[in-house]
Amino acid sequence: MTRRFDFWSLVSIATWAILLLLLIIPVGSVLLSSFIDRSGNTTIANYLAFMSEPRYQRAFVNTLIVGFGGLFGAMLLGSIMAFCISRFQIKGSRFVSLLAILALVSPPFIGAYSWIVLFGAGGVVRAWAKEIGITMPPIYGVGGILIVFALKFYPFVYLMVSGALSNVNRSLEEAAEGLGLTPLQRTFKISFPLVLPALTAGGLLALIQSIADFGTPRLLGRGFNVLATEAYALYSAEIGSNMSMATTISMVLIFVSMAFVMIQRFMSRRNVYHGNMINKPVKIQLKGWRNWLAHFAVYFIGLCGAMPVIISIIYSFRKTSGPVFQEGFALQSYERIMFNLGDVVRNSLTFSAIAVALIVIAGTIIGVLVARRTNLNTSLLDGAFMIPYVMPGIVIGIAYIAAFNTGPIVLTGTAAIIILSIFIRRLPYTVRTTSTALRQISPSLEEAAISLGYSPFQAFLRVTVPLIVPGIIAGAMLSFVTAINELSSSLVLYVGSTITMPVRIYLLILDGDFGTAAAMSTILLVLSGIAVYIAFRLMGRNEQALL
Amino acid sequence: MAYLTVVDGVKQFVGFRALNGVSISVEQGEFFTLLGPSGCGKTTLLRAIAGFNDLTSGTITLAGKDLRSVPPHQRDIGMVFQDYAVFPHLSVFDNVAFGLKPRKVPQAEIKTRVAEALDAVHLGALAERLPAAMSGGQQQRIGLARAMVINPRLLLMDEPLSNLDAKLRIELREEIRDIQKRVDIATIYVTHDQEEALAISDRICVMSAGQIEQIGTPQEIYGDPQTLFVANFVGTLNTLDTGPNLERMLGQLSLRAPNADTWTIRPESLRLVGEGEGAGPDHAALEGTVAKFTYLGREAHVLVKTDVGELVVQLGAAELKTLRSPGDRVFVLVPRDALMAFDADTKRIKLED
Ligand SMILES: Nc1ncnc2c1ncn2[C@@H]1O[C@H](COP(=O)(O)OP(=O)(O)OP(=O)(O)O)[C@@H](O)[C@H]1O
Ligand SMILES: [Mg+2]
């Protein structure tokens, strides 16, 4: 191959320009800002303050607590569900999977609030329980946060592990059986090591999401602070906003997330098993109480995880007077959205649509570059794209403020800054799926077209593109789901005219207007549902693609 | 000048030389086969001719014109790929019709030509199916029809029959041969199956480790191999142990070749005889005992321990009536003109009469 300056060199330069502008400069600004004090001098005082002030120490410890708590909760629920569904005959297992998807795409924060509605100080369930003489503690505090995280993030583990479990070649287990291992030994010695990479990968997702989430601790925490809430509080404080401390905490958050990604990579470094699926596992029909127990576990987890969604759909149709719920049902909440909050819905739709369009165009072209031009440059690119993957949304938001508030490019307060923050967070996903899809297409397909008389570009267009387009559209739909539900970076970046639906839901909940919040969540859910449906139609029901 | 020529073709990959000075010439209408073990550079040479992987150095000409300067899609060379390369999103019909579209063939003619091509590979009934769920053999035949239907200037086939069952393989290789003769397209065919190469080719080029060992007709390749590699790779070969016993036998046959390093003979040239039969100035008889007897239906292989090493003797149908069992004392008759000698460079040595 002779090295020429061509279209792909241009793409490569453009990609680095995008990364520089949207990733390296913002992260650099955060880093820089964390080393500068209020009067503009270079200092490490922020980090010293972080280490010495009990408030931050507590936030750090609490972050680890919710991170690992979310991790173990999600792993427990997710692997129980995955094991039951992929190994036992469960009636309505597709419905249960749907419940998991529902939990996964449910709008953020609504979860925490729905649990308050049920189990909060004036919670419905607690009130019932009191009537029959049971007093339960309200859900606030660290326990509540962990319950919500476990139920919200278990689908990550469930989808990963069930994918891996249904790929464990049954011959392996049969071989172990032949060697005289008991069923329990088989599970731990054969199946467990084989699904361990999936388990840790799913767990990692739950961990990173738990660390990044700040709405749940904020609503349920009641004084239980984590790094994400600290960063947001420092940034958004009306008086005495402390940007350099906020960026310091952001840096700590980035490092914590990075560290966990590294640990997970290290743990599963050798554990890539490629099964050739000759002997698919069969599902066992359980009998008696075991059957009941398996069904109970699966449905209990599924319904609890989807509970916030169910609650908010029901509450969205309840009659209200002001923010107070009345007896009976009505469409008042939806009317309020139609007449007063139409622009919010419009904002969300246009921002997401533009972001997704940009993601698809840039992601596909860069994906082709990464797949077709394997050299140092592209492996560097591959690495750089890991960074947005582990950046908590709140950190991206703060980073964009730090980078684009002053200086040559001022974007704060524009729609562009929200769109770009969504763009950079989701771009890596599209790049990766495109390049993986391309690597799976044999290069001899294009060569066949060339030998039949098509120019290389024509061959790409007529052979490769039709093969990857369904995957790209499906990916776009899933990006749309993430984009339209994105809250934490928008919360930092929004101004009055660029409020999006998740931000509005958050503000409505803080205002105590749960009816309208529930209706808006329902709309969001319907939009996400449509996108997921289109994606599944295009690529088959592939739940793993949601991760 | 030949129709297609490759002169001094060299292909250097990073840290690996896949072609090391390869020169071939293929005549108009000729069926030319590249034969060699896995990894010897057959595909690499084919891809260089097709233009997917340019040579590091060397020249390629087609019909007198330089080919290396022509971009691959303008070379008009049909190719059948080792991994089928069937377009999964197109029906069988559209796969085959794919190459006719850029050639601006009218719609009606496309229909008839594609139908003909599909019939030729026995796929007429599957025209509207999608290839994804088809067997490897069916996909390979789609690739074959697709490459032939465009009437290219040159047809390249990379192991087009490797995934078929034995029967279909023989049937299709006859079919390929017939079609090729009918349309008279110069064809380069790659295989590592020696029987296939012998059956189908006008000429065979035996390759090893990026180099050409010998080019010749099937008879020349099999009957008159020029290197030890060719003799070994095409057909089976007995190598005689060197030493005083071999010298004595060669003396009997008054064969002298001072440079000879290796003496060989093919199993089918050997015969089993009774004591004292057949020996003379043109035949040496070696005494030995049967070590193994392998019955193969049409023929049988007898492994005989002699004082020049273990020799495989191939028995034809006529001799199969007498069963041999291990331990039997037998005599192996070695014809003088069937012995082949090779020098230290593994080159064939011509023996005087
Ligand atoms: N892109 C490449 N980079 C480095 N080495 C290569 C490359 N392509 C092929 N080779 C090497 O060149 C040698 C010849 O490969 P080639 O594919 O031509 O073999 P072949 O004769 O077609 O074998 P087979 O019968 O297995 O198809 C092999 O050793 C292969 O590993
Ligand atoms: Mg090959």
CATH architecture of the largest domain in chain A: Orthogonal Bundle
Helix content of chain B: 10-25%
Mean pLDDT of chain A: 83
Radius of gyration of chain B: 24 Å
Q: What is the H level of CATH, i.e. the homologous superfamily of the largest domain in chain B?
A: P-loop containing nucleotide triphosphate hydrolases
So what's the CATH class of the largest domain in chain A?
Answer: Mainly Alpha
Q: What is the oligomer described by this structure? A: heterodimer
Q: Please state the overall shape of chain B, judged from the principal axes of the Cα atoms.
A: elongated
Topology readout:
The complex is a heterodimer of chains A (547) and B (353).
Chain A: H1 7-34, H2 45-52, H3 54-87, H4 93-105, H5 110-119, H6 124-131, H7 142-165, H8 170-178, H9 183-212, H10 215-220, H11 227-236, H12 243-267, H13 288-316, E1 318-321, E2 324-329, H14 332-340, H15 342-372, H16 376-384, H17 386-390, H18 393-404, H19 415-440, H20 443-451, H21 456-485, H22 488-493, H23 501-511, H24 514-539
Antiparallel strand pairs in A: 1-2
Helix pairs in contact in A: 1-12, 1-15, 1-16, 1-18, 2-3, 3-7, 3-9, 3-13, 4-7, 4-13, 5-13, 7-9, 7-13, 8-9, 9-12, 11-12, 12-18, 13-24, 14-24, 15-19, 15-21, 19-21, 20-21, 21-24, 23-24
Chain B: E1 4-13, E2 16-26, E3 31-35, H1 42-50, E4 57-62, E5 65-66, E6 77-80, H2 92-97, H3 107-120, H4 136-148, E7 154-158, H5 166-183, E8 186-191, H6 194-200, E9 203-208, E10 211-216, H7 218-223, H8 228-233, E11 238-239, H9 244-252, E12 262-265, E13 271-273, E14 283-295, E15 300-306, E16 309-315, E17 329-335, E18 340-342, E19 348-349
Parallel strand pairs in B: 3-8, 3-9, 6-7, 7-8
Antiparallel strand pairs in B: 1-2, 1-4, 4-5, 9-10, 11-12, 12-18, 13-17, 14-15, 14-17, 15-16, 18-19
The structure holds adenosine-5'-triphosphate and magnesium ion (MG).
